[in-house]
Amino acid sequence: MSTFVGDRYRCKDCVEQIGFDLCGDCYNTCSKRPGRFNQQHTPDHKFELVKSTIIRSIMLRLVTGQLDDASAFANHDDASGISENETP
Predict the structure, then answer these.
(1) 1 inside domain
(2) Mind listing the pLDDT tens digit for each residue in 40-72?
(3) Is 34 a member of any domain?
(4) Closest residue by Cα to residue 14 from 42, 52, 51
(5) CA–CA separation, 36 vs 34, rounded Å?
(6) Residue 64 neighbours by CB distance under 10 Å
(7) How many domains does the chain have?
(8) CA 46 vs CA 14, 24, 68, 82: distances in Å
(9) With helix as H, strand as E and coil as C, how does 16-84 read?
(10) Which of 33, 34, 8 is nearest to 21 (CA)?
(11) What pTM did the predictor assign?
(12) How many other C-beta atoms can be found within 10 angstroms of the C-beta atom of residue 22?
């Protein structure tokens, strides 16, 4: 599970399996912290924006209150056309 809210940036130059990621707020500061826990990250490394997944988008919308109901979770492949609140 990702603990990032908002944009996520991944270091393209770090070779450790754990990698080095920053949230959008940290990335947009002029200070790029060096790596921790024996990581080799340095402030001159380049970053790339990580594309969010649909699940991450839904979670972000739920956390920020931008998702009004559970309609995003509805099964749109249901060919019956009957909603769960209707009787057949």
Answers:
(1) no
(2) 777 788 888 987 777 767 777 787 776 555 554
(3) yes
(4) 42
(5) 7
(6) 10
(7) 1
(8) 9, 14, 38, 50
(9) CCCCCEEEHHHHCCCCCCCCCCCCCCCCCCCEEECCCCHHHHHHHHHHHCCCCCHHHHCCCCCCCCCCC
(10) 8
(11) 0.49
(12) 19
